[in-house]
Amino acid sequence: MRHSQKFPFCAAYAVAAVLFLVSCDSADGPVGVFDYSPVIEELEVHPRELTFTGEDGVRDTTITISISAKSDLPEDSRLVARIYSLQESSVLASDTLLSVESDPRKYRAELQMVGQTSSFDDLVVYVFPQTRDQRIGDRVETRLRVRWENIGEPEILSLEHPQSVRIPAAGQTNFNIIARVGHPHSLDFIQSVRLELYDSARNRIFASQMGSQSAGIYVQNFSVNQNNRPDTYTVEVQAVNVLGIRSDTLRSTFEFVE
Predict the structure, then answer these.
(1) How confident is the model at residue 41 (pLDDT cuts 50, 70, 90)?
(2) Farthest-apart Cα atoms in the chain, separation
(3) Which of 38, 150, 155, 174 would bridge with 129, disulfide CB 3.0–4.6 Å?
(4) pTM metric for this prediction
(5) Residue 37 in contact with residue 77, Cβ under 8 Å?
(6) Angle subtended at Cα 156 by Cα 151 and Cα 160, rounded to the nearest 5 degrees
(7) Distant-in-sequence contacts of 46-51, Cβ < 8 A, 24+ apart
(8) Cβ contacts of 6 within 8 Å, gap of 6 or more
(9) How many Cα neighbours within 13 Å face the side chain of 133?
(10) Which H or E run contains 18?
(11) What is the mean pLDDT of residues 106-131?
(12) How many CA atoms lie within 13 A of 167 on its CB side?
């Protein structure tokens, strides 16, 4: 078994457009951009930041976000709050803000997001007025920052494979390359393990995500037949965790021999 070292790795038209928009107010068609829309003031979000640590691990969790805003909202409208994931291009939570008795201009809501800790990233909280006929006014938004602390890096602990594989006169010979992978907190943080194979001229002849056989063990199957030629091959393996942090690359070599 061979193991090798790690390597770090115009004006007129504008007037015409305004006249057209104003004329639309009394007829069916697009909503005039100069129509009255409620103004949203003092948007507040708590917490403004979500912090996870390596000890939190990759697990299902529920996060509650408190949202408040002020607005002179007409009776035929409501304030809607949504939490949107830029990473997943989807709405994670949505609800209507309710008025506060002590201040009729103030509205509040609590939104809950359910998902894995690793899925909360690049979040936007936005609030907008909506009328009974579903017309939407201007929205205000703010970013909800998500941070990970002390998560650590994945590590390729070892590579196992034959030092040499004999080219058969007929049929094929199968062999495996096995990577043992570690993480300072939990193997649940490992997202993928990538293998690349190069010949002696440094041509990449193969690349793949290795299959997970068991916790921390990743395997790639190969076969050699009579059409192969003797050569020395370099295998390079790198792990990536759920936050996109990459391990150092571990390299090793083996030979095809006659």
Answers:
(1) confident
(2) 88
(3) 38
(4) 0.54
(5) no
(6) 160
(7) 48/142, 48/144, 48/145, 49/144, 49/145, 49/146, 49/147, 50/120, 50/144, 50/145, 50/146, 50/147, 51/146, 51/147, 51/148, 51/149
(8) 156, 248, 249, 250
(9) 1
(10) helix 12-23
(11) 83
(12) 12
Contact 179, 237 (CB under 8 A): yes
Average pLDDT over the chain, rounded to an integer: 80
3-state class (DSSP) for residue 17: helix
Summarised one tens digit per residue, pLDDT across range 155-168 is 999 999 999 999 99
Half-sphere exposure of 137 (CA within 13 A, CB side): 24
What's the confidence (pLDDT) of residue 23?
31
Neighbours of 220 (CB within 10 A): 21
pLDDT tier for residue 235 given thresholds of 50, 70 and 90: very high
Amino acid at 159: L
Structure tokens given for 171: 């049929």
Neighbours of 112 (CB within 10 A): 12
What percent of the chain stands above pLDDT 90?
41
User: Residue type for 66, please?
Assistant: S
Q: Tell me: the pLDDT tens digits for 68-84?
A: 998 888 888 899 999 98
**How far apart, in whole angstroms, are the C-alpha atoms of residue 84 and residue 65?**
12
